[in-house]
Amino acid sequence: MPSAIVTGAANGIGRATAERLAADGFAVAGLDIEPVELPGVRGMHCDMSELESFAAIVESVERELGPVEALANVAGIAVNETLADLTIAGYRRQLAVSLDGPIFLARAVGLRMAARGRGRIVNVTSVHAHHSEAAALAYGASKAGLEAATRVMAIELGPRGVLVNDVAPGFTNTRMSISEDGTNELDTEWFADVYQRYGKLPLRRAAEPPEIAATIAYLLSPANTYVTGTSVLVDGGLTATF
User: Exposed, middle or buried: residue 61 (CB in 10 Å: 0-12, 13-18, 19+)?
Assistant: First the structure.
């Protein structure tokens, strides 16, 4: 049985991806800083900013579950600071978790895959890699950087049998939609007016995590034999209206 690693597996898109890959026949290791409690998924503690821990984590996964043939880098955070309020700590924390971590975990896994001549990696980015909003400088920089890194990985690992892509979600019903005061942006009048009634979002609704996971699962599956080095938008048509 092939094994897979999914980061951010405790909730949201990561959880849905871990569930989907387990259902598809992978032995799944779910990595998160929070406890991962999913049937058929081996939960493992991982802080994506602790780059030095990755070698031991990957070694442990392969020892327990077998060679990793799929990696879904889903874990990420949003540090919402305007340019005027930007702090070094917030900026560095955002990039450590959402850019540095995925790159170095993909390196740790990808080089093992390349040595065996097969593997698939998906990095989860965002529409914010290309389309921005206020108070999201560090978030946008991390996602744009990860998209660029994905292309380089695809170029370098492709000749050795490893396909690397990124999936860029739009509005998705996860904890990241909830602000510090507890407001879910998907329940606001602003979202209902601009994106639903006015039609800025053609499908008139946010995605559910399993819908994003379905695209990730395809790109990580043996059925994907020729898609690499690309960014796949899963945004309900959002960016088509820009």
Answer: buried
